[in-house]
């Protein structure tokens, strides 16, 4: 097995996710060497760290203007990234030509927006679950219509003695007796730029991907400034129930935000400053159903293991009596 292949497997658990807690190269070499097969010099390891940190697909990233390393934010899934590029070029990827910088900038905006959405709902008491494997390279294009990018979970909670969000046992028992889920699941699609050319596809993908959940959301980064577009989205909402919301972040505003890893690991004051940059505007409220379509959800279980991960997480929260954020395995 090559050194790079070994490092790709070894490094993720060794690297901190927060750039502010980055690990120095000397310490990373020491930890990696404990698991490596083969005798490699410090210079060889440092060379590989440097080369891999420039590769967006590798797990290691280097801090800006520093010497430490951290775990790279998960890449944008292939299908959703390609769809975003198609929307930006109005269905003609040739418009990008060989401008790799433009492609990288577009995908980085998507990564940042996904991180903003995660942080925003964390702060506002909703619990996000992100789908990645369903949109991985090689997945069928039909998955764009079957799976949401994010599921937002709402619990009825109270604050426990340690500040934890505890689930109300009385309400849990009552809903169980009535055959109702003890949570509300809304399935969401994320897009950067609203457009009269693509809003119907955006909307109906969000509808299709949320058919099993209790509601659907279409979440735009940029503001919806076109009155005709806003009216058209409201008409679709009135007919089909998918909610539409904008975070008020133009592409330029996204470019000015910190890296996704910094957003996800921001301290309270940094998070507060980030929230002040948002101009969240509700264009249309989602219509929420009481029941989940369990048959449709069970059908999706055969197509993505992430459905089982979602169910296991929800079950764990119920068993523990606490609403806990989903933690992805390193």
Automatic annotation (TrEMBL):
<protein>
    <submittedName>
        <fullName>Uncharacterized protein</fullName>
    </submittedName>
</protein>
């Amino acid at each position: 097995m090559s050194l790079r292949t070994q490092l790709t497997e070894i490094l993720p658990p060794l690297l901190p996710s927060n750039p502010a807690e980055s690990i120095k190269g000397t310490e990373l070499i020491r930890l990696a060497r404990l698991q490596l097969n083969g005798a490699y010099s410090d210079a060889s390891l440092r060379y590989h760290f440097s080369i891999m940190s420039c590769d967006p697909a590798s797990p290691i990233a280097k801090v800006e203007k520093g010497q430490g390393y951290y775990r790279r934010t998960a890449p944008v899934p292939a299908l959703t990234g390609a769809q975003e590029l198609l929307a930006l070029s109005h269905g003609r990827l040739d418009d990008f030509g060989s401008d790799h910088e433009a492609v990288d900038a577009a995908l980085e905006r998507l990564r940042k927006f996904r991180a903003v959405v995660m942080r925003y709902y964390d702060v506002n008491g909703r619990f996000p679950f992100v789908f990645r494997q369903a949109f991985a390279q090689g997945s069928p294009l039909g998955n764009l219509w079957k799976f949401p990018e994010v599921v937002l979970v709402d619990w009825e909670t109270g604050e426990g003695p340690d500040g934890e969000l505890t689930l109300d046992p009385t309400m849990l028992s009552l809903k169980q007796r009535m055959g109702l889920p003890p949570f509300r699941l809304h399935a969401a699609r994320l897009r950067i730029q609203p457009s009269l050319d693509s809003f119907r596809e955006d909307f109906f993908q969000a509808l299709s991907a949320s058919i099993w959940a209790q509601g659907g959301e279409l979440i735009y980064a940029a503001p919806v400034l076109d009155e005709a577009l806003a009216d058209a989205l409201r008409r679709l909402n009135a007919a089909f129930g998918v909610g539409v919301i904008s975070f008020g972040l133009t592409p330029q505003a996204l470019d000015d935000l910190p890296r996704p890893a910094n957003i996800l690991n921001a301290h309270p004051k940094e998070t507060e400053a980030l929230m002040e940059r948002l101009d969240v505007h509700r264009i249309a409220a989602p219509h929420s159903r009481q029941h989940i379509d369990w048959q449709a959800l069970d059908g999706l279980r055969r197509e993505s293991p992430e459905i089982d991960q979602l169910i296991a997480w929800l079950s764990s929260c119920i068993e523990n009596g606490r609403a806990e954020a989903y933690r992805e395995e390193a």
